[in-house]
Amino acid sequence: MSKQFDVIVIGGGPGGYIAAIRAAQLGFNTACIDEWKNDKGGPAPGGTCTNVGCIPSKALLQSSEHFEHAGKHFGEHGIQVQGLGLDLPKMIGRKDAVVKQNNDGILYLFKKNKVAFFHGRGAFVKAAEGGAGYEIKVTGSAEETLVGKEVIVATGSNARPLPGVPFDETKVLSNDGALRIGAVPKTLGLIGSGVIGLEMGSVWRRLGAEVTILEGLPTFLGAVDEQIAKEAHKAFTKQGLKIELGVKVGEVRSDGEGVSIAYTDAKGQAQSLDVDKLIVSIGRVPNTVGLNAEGVGLKLDERGAILVDDECRTNLPGVWAVGDVVRGPMLAHKAEEEGVAVAERIAGQHGHVNFNTIPWVIYTSPEIAWVGRTEQQLKADGVKYKAGTFPFLANGRARALGDTTGMVKFLADAATDEILGVHIVGPMASELISEAVVAMEFKASSEDIARICHAHPSLSEATKEAALAVDKRTLNF
Which top-rank group of organisms is this from (predicted)? Predict the structure, then answer.
């Protein structure tokens, strides 16, 4: 006999588990299905983000940054370090422990909020009898048949492989394998200079690898404000990351002890790169394989993403989809916001997701974060604007930290002074960007931020000073 639920969520990543919890808070009898397994075969909810994405990468970024500071920067603080060594298995073990804490935390939240959890793969079977919802089959350690009046699909995305070069997670690595390298490679290649490429490249460079990044686009971080991207490129190059732009990758051979990549450089010259390991970071694809979308008539686009309207409704009544499996940026926090919004819409409320104020972050050192439009976008759209920048070099807290790379940049409407975009490269950019998100959500002006008292000494003063710079009246530069 099938188990009946008001809401069934397929997928336990950031979009899915948050949607399930919010639905339960709203009084719905809710189930969440997720198939991720830990190394013992037990449940590991949290999706790509928790298991092989956001959380473990930040753990390794933090550990590798400590290692680099101890080896290269502690001396500036009068701290003498002798016999510095790397225990990579312990570092990887710490990362795994952080992941497990998050897995266990989600399972606890399910119990706390009375969400029924099913460990396995969920797939559509058919419309329920009488047209009230859909029948969902769970395939795992124990098969179950569930019926939900409302279904939220949150099945996430998978790493995109190079054509003809599958991931073996030994020498040709996705983000998953990049987090589990057993020994620091002497040479490491990366194809793609996006978020994952830069973060993983930074981790292994700090630990001693010689890292080369091959990027097909002629510009570095094309989605980032050009001035910020140039500052970041300068910093990464100085650190030792070798970044080649405008390349065309040809044959990739994985044999013997390493990987050989043939490519054409930006000048049209044939080149080759031999590395011990290769990380491929060329984007992600929606994960809809095995969902039986075609069996129930759920419409997908040419990429395999689920087609939804502005409120995340699919073409099927009572079926919704959120996160990486639908249009929009593939960001964990975007998925969370959509998950909450859909649960509230099911309850008859008005869920809110503003794509214009979704922040973006790259957790390198320096960190890069932004919200809103870039200067090049404003120029292309013919929008008249004012710009203001302030360097961390002139910020007292940054000097005390010994981390003065980068700047804060404000873009405001020339007529109304409304903030149109804020872009940061520098220390703790991921935390500083939240003030800009709040300001833009409330349609604040740069003058509003310039008039707000910021604690001294703090990195946030650079935000205030950049806002002052829009009106050419910085106080400390």
Answer: Bacteria
